[in-house]
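Quick one:
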Amino acid sequence: MTTHVMNTYGRIPVNLVRGEGIWLWDEDGNKYLDAVAGVAVCNLGHCHPAVTAAIQEQAGQLVHTSNWYGIPLQEQLADRLCALSGMDAAFFSNSGAEANEAAIKLARLYGHNKGINNPSIIVTDGSFHGRTLATLTATGNRKVHAGFEPLVQGFVRVPFNDLEAIHQVAEHNSEVVAIMVEPIEGEGGVIMPDEDYLTGLRKICDDKGWLLILDEIQTGMGRTGKWFACQHENVLPDVMTLAKGLGNGFPVGACLARGEAAATLQPGNHGSTFGGNPLACRTALAVIDAMETADIPVQAAAIGQYIHDKLSKALAQLNGINSIRQKGMLIGIELDRDCADLMHTALAQGLLINVTAGNIVRLIPPLVMSESEADQLVDGICSLLTKYLAIAA
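Output:
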């Protein structure tokens, strides 16, 4: 079939047309258990009634004006996010990449304001921060960089979960102004750092006068069992970026900041035509309301642990499984071989999964999953992997 859509995605051969909760249906009426959630986006599941109602009502009132004017819903959303996160101010964008762009610009201006001519940001191997030129440069994956050189200057790369490497950079580079890191590397393979990693980063930044920028685009909004992953260590960053689950599928991102960082960007320094429009903010407010009402982060912690425990027990004797990593509803099953074709195999079994970093089955289902639905997911994954590893052996 001829299409005029650019060939930028290696799409799975299915057309999804309807969703409800953790389930999706294709145009032929086939039903799928969704363990991808739009890539950790639809935390409340598909077509959540309260979010749907808010979108419908707001679309009939006011969709867009401009950031030239006051937007009360934007102010309300900023208040709610700052209350949840401990931050002081918010800039709204349309995506995670844009939120990270705002954070990068903020860090550079912060450095220039301190008289640093070529401010640098420390980033890590295996990270993913977006597809714009600055964010793909910050991303620690050579495959993402290839073909888009020259890349943006001003980034220093170190291994993830390696505080000593950062100390080494600090000894030899006087122009570092910030560290930008994911609390857990999602696209990189659900890589968990040591328990004191973020605490260590916070201390380094405090000692050096650097900004700690946490990319919580995938880990934020309840995904790991807390509103934000940094809260597991009680670490407060200077800058935090959000998107994905913030709008439950509606495009909205946020760059939150506190202290000196919150006052760095001034009129004319940054902006967005669509960022923080009334419809986006009303949607995000409805998402927060629904999450608070149902205590979704706590539910995500419990169901995520339930899935992990059942998977660990069921797959314990299966050759080919290296490890199972989990924080809340962010779960990675590492195989001893590449397994990208599992996404197609799972589709035929009515299961939507993701494979990242070549050999990691990443499960990022909606956070509203019940125990009985979790049982279905575990049964499906165990059947899938048992058959796959037996054939691939």
